[in-house]
Amino acid sequence: YHVHHGEAHGAETRPTFFFWRHAQKPFHIDYGFVPQDWRRSIRKVEIGAFADWSGLSDHMPLILDIEDPPNKPGAH
Question: What is the mean predicted confidence (pLDDT) over 19-31?
Answer without folding.
Answer: 95
